[in-house]
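If you are new to this repository, start here. Below is one unmodified record pulled from the training split, so you can see the exact layout before writing a loader.
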Amino acid sequence: MIKKIGRFIIGLKFAIILFILIAIYSIIGTVIPQGATKEFYLHNYESFGNIILLLQFNKVYSSFIYRTLLLLFIVNITGCTIKLLPSQIARLKDDYFPAPGKSAENLWDEKYDTEEFRNILEKKGFKIYKSENGYKAAKNRIGVLGSSITHLGIIIIILGSFIGNLFAYEGYINLLPGESTAFVEQGFILKLDDFYLGFREDGSTEQYYSELKIIEEGKEVEAKKIWVNNPLKYKGINFYQSSFGWVSELTIKDSEGNIIEKASLKNNEYHFYQPKHLTVYLYGYYPDFAIDHEGQPVTITQQKKHPHYAVILYEFNNYVDSFITSPGQPIYYEDLEITFEDSSLYTGLTYRRDFGYYFVLIGCLFMFVGLLLSFYFYPRFVIVGDKTILPVTKQNIWGYTMQLKNLLSSTSKQ
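And here is the target side for that same chain:
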């Protein structure tokens, strides 16, 4: 039973299953913004928000599930390679010659000069071996290692991804235009100059842009406008445009019109006013407000065409009332006047420094070499005997046969 499980773990079927699961997780990690706050997923994905958080789709590439899949894939490919390697090493030896396949075409013709053919093969890089009835020729024996070297490249790449995910320096920040955050260890400040959305003709959001600056010792050293799939890289850290949202300005005034509280709230955030034990909960800001068929507030677009706020009040954690208000429209509660004056866009940036970068480069180099050996420098053999000239190869037998025919034609005695 244990041997059967072991064979399955290093088998092709399990490799395909793992590959599909890793691909699905990678697609999810591309589609769903990574590293945002818990509230972002609960608000933007509604009923799916809890599932996203439970399955760690909010941090796919550092999730336990993804790391486990990568580790299993490494075990699978390593086991497969170790299983194949002894037979491949045996085929490197000079005494190894594969048997001709059933479909191998006998190229012998009495008009061909087999000794001249031997000389041509030597010039083409074939190594000649004497046999009882003639000779054998072999070229590119090293190509038999192509699949193992390719596997090694894949292992290094996945191992690099695994190590990178395990020890990566990463995080998530929200910035309003004009705000900045310091990366103390790296010795620079990241500042957001501006953030804005690009819209299609139908009003849907096409892209969102952040204009960033890098400041060191009080001087600007780099500036770049980034968007999705066009990050800023500085000192090995990549800054990705991953999300956006709205920050709304709350003002609470007393009966005489004096401002007694101010706060900035994102959607699904609240402000607690202690003297009244009052909680002002911003359910959502809707820049292009509408009501859906279920009577719920929605926004048609992200453009400020018809802005409104959905607000809920609680006193001592007990529900008081809910309101739909426009910017500057007051909500009155006892002697308080509560208003949301305006809302501004903020950007959500994911930053990451991946320590597996060089592993990926080395792995890609191994894969390139392995693929060259497998598909270009693959092993080629010729068996020349009594009225036989047989081409032997496991790759592109038709093309190889045609090459030998062309070489033989140049030795024709007629």
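Two things worth knowing about this chain: The first helix runs from residue 2 to 9. DSSP finds nine helices and 20 strands in the chain.
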